[in-house]
Amino acid sequence: MAGEFALIDKYFARPTPSAVLGPGDDCALVQPTPGRQLAVTTDMLVAGTHFLPDTNPRNLGWKALAVNLSDLAAMGATPRWVTLAGALPAVDEAWIAAFADGFFACAREYSVDVIGGDTTKGPLNVCITALGEVEPGRALRRDGAQVGDQIWVSGRPGLAALGLAHLQGKVALPEPWPRLCVAALEKPRPRVALGQALLGIASAAIDVSDGLLADLGHICERSGCAAAVKLVQLPHLPKGETYDADLRRIALECQVAGGDDYELCFTAPGALSLDIARIAARLELPLWHIGEIVAGPAGEVTVYDPDAQPVSFDRHGYDHFAA
């Protein structure tokens, strides 16, 4: 059976042309582009919490990297380098090979080099640190939203949570939703190009990882304002007369609070809505105007029905330590 360093050399040692010194020493050495700031993020994925233990390892490899690149996308940063650390309960070379295949497929697509990491024995989890670059003063942040700004979201938040509910047998999705939702859950697409396109346009941004309302609330909290979201302007999910009331209810709950989507939620002045429409067309990515930033208690997010009446939800997003 291969040891730790043999496994690393066999599956994770790849060329790192953008690094001064890649894996193999006590530290990697990188040279940031002159005049750029570094954006740094770390995410951990734990079996049973962030993914089902029987998740396809290739998909897991992709997702483990994608969720970190999503954080860089939310800042408008260009991904450059990543490190990978993981714990494995046992050596399963077929599983490791598939994981590495998915991980490096994502790395190639988004032009990042894997410059180091660590392995150990323990409960299955993966921890990644990603580094990107952005021009000084240009990064998209959470604290720039202004009263009167429009609120936008990319893609279709809720698909990933519906995919999880489907895999857990909590909901029976009609075709073609099972394939679309499970793909959204297991192979998210970090919106790197969108984040870069929004530089100079968005006033604030965040990636939707814990739930649309919860993450929008983080923007509002940091910006000292509130948000009004219009139910009828949310992206379309399974609904209508052909679907039962339980499915419509679950779909809506997944949409506003499910999380794991890794879409971008952002705010921008209404005068820039045409620019945003052009970005949507150029990237072939739906961007939805779902509400407005309003005066109110910092962090408060209210959803309104078509009659302008507030709609309450039991939760706004995922909290690892909630009772």
Name a few traits of the molecule.
seven-stranded mixed sheet, 9 helices, disordered C terminus, alpha+beta, 11 strands, Phosphoribosyl-aminoimidazole Synthetase, Chain A, domain 2, 2 domains, 60s Ribosomal Protein L30, Chain: A
The pLDDT mean sits at: 90
SSE order, one letter for each helix or strand = HEHEHEEEHHHEHEHEHEEE
Number of contiguous helices: 9
Distance between the termini: 42 Å
Topology:
Blueprint: H1 4-11, E1 37-46, H2 57-74, E2 78-88, H3 93-109, E3 113-121, E4 125-134, E5 150-154, H4 159-167, H5 177-186, H6 192-197, E6 204-208, H7 212-223, E7 226-230, H8 245-257, E8 263-268, H9 273-283, E9 287-294, E10 301-304, E11 310-311
Parallel strand pairs: 2-3, 7-10
Antiparallel strand pairs: 1-4, 2-4, 5-8, 5-9, 6-8, 7-9, 10-11
Any overview of this molecule?
The protein has 323 residues and is an alpha+beta fold. The protein folds into 2 domains: 4-134, 60s Ribosomal Protein L30, Chain: A, CATH 3.30.1330; 150-310, PurM-like C-terminal domain (Phosphoribosyl-aminoimidazole Synthetase, Chain A, domain 2). Helices cover 32% and strands 23% of the residues. It has 9 helices and 11 strands. The strands form 2 sheets. It has a 7-stranded mixed beta sheet with strand order 6-8-5-9-7-10-11. A 4-stranded mixed beta sheet has the order 1-4-2-3, with helices on one face. β10 (301-304) and β11 form a beta hairpin. It is globular and about 65 Å long. The termini are far apart. The model is unreliable at 319-323 (pLDDT under 50).
